[in-house]
## 1
Amino acid sequence: MAYELYYWDGIQGRGEFVRLALEEAGADYVDVCRGPASKGQGMPAMFAIMDGKSEFDLPFAPPFLKDGDLIIPHVANILMYLGPKLGLAPRDEGKRHVLNGLQLTITDLVAEVHDTHHPIATSKYYEDQKQEAKARAAEFIENRIPKFLGYFEKVLEQNPDGSSHIFGGELTYVDLSLFQVYEGLRYAFPRATAHLDRRYPHLTALHKAVMKRPNIARYLQSDRRIPFNENGIFRHYPELDRDMA
């Protein structure tokens, strides 16, 4: 039975971290909200689950994954569930929790990226909080990008199995998520990230290696890969970008 991924149509957003894992593993999955209503798919199918009247396991928000009757919400939770099944996480339970900690740190980073363009309220348009967004983005570029990427660079450098992967000696879902973070930051803040290769050589090498993986390379060239746009998490507003000191 195919996995069912539920996420907003038309954006990469948080759902992309799950898509990358499924695509790398060559897993059978349906991106439900992008499918036709005639097949019981599309956005109404997602809302039908979220608005359920009797279920105890209602997801608060997408993305969420269905595996048979099981519903798993939240990116890090989904990836922790999928990781062993897809060969993208160690079998040892303790090591999986370490890996999950790295993914949760990415979750924190993604939340801060979102707040660069919506620092006041998600219910308001970007244009209604542009001045606050400029201040938040400046702080993010100056302090938070170096804080987060410096941490992941250090973890890569100190990996006893080598710096090719963030954990252990084989590809994990966190490697794929770091690829997406790297891609997203370069899209949203091209000036601020112009010198990532010099500042974070291990992250840059990881990004290049993931991009060359056969399944990922095919996915990136397919119409399944939604382009970055200004409705997702990583948004490019030139007025928010600046050169990094």
## 2
Amino acid sequence: MMMRMEKRGSVFLRKSWLLALSLLLVSLAFLPAGSAQAADSKWISQVWSKYETYNKKTVASYDAYMKKTTDTYNAYFKEQNDRLAELERIVLEDQKQWNERLEADLAELEERYGDDRELKQELKEYERDINPNLLSSPMGLYTRAANRNLLSSTLGVYARALNENLLSSYMAEYKKAVNPNNLSSPANSLKKTVSDSYLSSPMNTLMKSSSTNYISSPIYKYSRGKISKTKAQQEYNKLYKKYTEQISKDTAAHKKEIAETAASADRKIQQLYLETVSALEKQRNETLQSISDQRKKITGEGLTWEPLLATPAEETRDVIE
């Protein structure tokens, strides 16, 4: 009886062992290729290191570009506003000299012709013409043209174009393009392109594709034994090529837009400068000619003067290299 029970127990154990072995073999048959082997951790580390090297190089290039671009803008802004200040200085100094000269001339004419009743009205007209505080007088028109605080004045229009804080100005147009914090600027788009923290950027997608922490990554699938190393390599190489090419393409496009915007703003600023110089010179000539004509009515002699502002040749410059 005891021998029979021992025999039955032995058979039961053998059957249990065979059943367990069968189940194990069936499970192994359904596992993907490569899952029976441990994942190549060295290769996985190499993939991540490759991404980190690329990301570091790309971000460093972006930082260097933005520094150069910002420095170029700041230098340009200073250059143009210094030129505005110099133009203003020249014109205001000219007005000061003419005001002093004409006031002295009026005093002399009044002394010589003040008792002449026939010239009394002409002297009053001359006094009015040289008064810079009368809006419609010849000297008043010249004075207003050079007042940058008057919105519609010649110098005022030019000064506003160079004001980076006025949204519609030419300078603000340039500033916006190179400002990475302005959400609608090409500089901001460039910043997003190279950032792996911006969710929809190609750099972010490349980062995820290189990591074992994201389900969609071939590296994740391989590390979990879901695909073979060969398949993971094929998929990753394809993704790496796709997203690095996209980053290069998008970067070039954003830089081109920045350069074109800067060049466009510069062309408009240079043209406005030429127009401003021409308009100021024209108003000065008209003012002095009108005063001179009135003086001739009194003494028979007019005024003489030389051009104040030499119209510069239009310059061509590279705003962004």
## 3
Amino acid sequence: MRTLLLAEELLLLGLDRSTRRIGDRFDGRVLPVALVRDLVDAGALHLDGGDGPDGGDTVTPSGGEPDHPALAAALAAVTRDGTDTGSHAVAATAAHLARTPAGSAGGAVGQLVADGVLAAQEYRRFGLFRRVLLTEQDPEPARALRTRLASLLVTETAPGGHDGLLLALLGLTDLAGDVLPPEIDAETRGVAQHRAALVAEGAARDPFVRAYFAVRSGWAGN
């Protein structure tokens, strides 16, 4: 199994297995932020540190072409189909992506289905409105993900960059506790949820956490 994108991990954790749909508590505004981070990790965008006039780190297209369809679509969106190769704040990039179809769940879900991680069943509600039900075709990726994150929350292990951002975004959307197995006792669960809140608080200056708040506020920066 390939390494999952941050956006794909968020979607797997946001899937409500009882309704077979992305849960109502899942905040889809984390997805464009995660996709920008995934573009950096894939080498398609270069992250430039430092404080610019627009208040945060910037990203610049590197010329790389990602193989993942969702990342290819996201890169096309943030570069205006390759016509914009300039540097932009992470927050502005995520906010722009959020206003395009490439910033939604479709591409990441489609690849998870293509890889056999999820199975999709389409139907039409009242014969008119298209709906998609999702089931875990291969439960191992989600199980391994929850195990990895739960171990970080119930031990003193400091999360690394990728997992730290993942936990921070989950903490900001009140989903961090969902990675814990049901047999965890109430006291340990409380400690883990407090630790998730601390991770989110500690990541407050992370450019991608700031980008999430920009997207959430509907910021229309350049």
## 4
Amino acid sequence: MNILDEIRNRAVAPTVAPREDVLAPQQQGSSTPDVDVTSTADSSVSELTKLEEQLANFPEIAPRVPVRLEVAIKQELDELCNLEKITVETLLEAFYVTCQDKDTVMKQVLKEAKKRLKSRKEAGNIRSSITRLANLAKKLK
């Protein structure tokens, strides 16, 4: 038997008797309990309103911000967050709020941030130069 015959044989599927729909309403002996739909809907709406009011008391959360970190620092932050059962985002918020109240700490943090930014820009320039040189070498071959 060739492959085409095998495919044709598989295409002939056995027929199955149709089954009864278990979700269809049954006519005999089915009594549905009388539920006041309007009172249930009203209580759901009032509960929804109450929850929306509670949510309005919390600060609005911005969309996720992709943050690129040094590998070693990222690993340490992940370990700390796992240990304390918090997220990196909430840790960053807490760092900011804590530093915001302390001018000397904030100045120290900003000084470190500017130093790191300068270092990253330098590393980026080096990577860019490497890429340009590598592309130039490919063109000259």
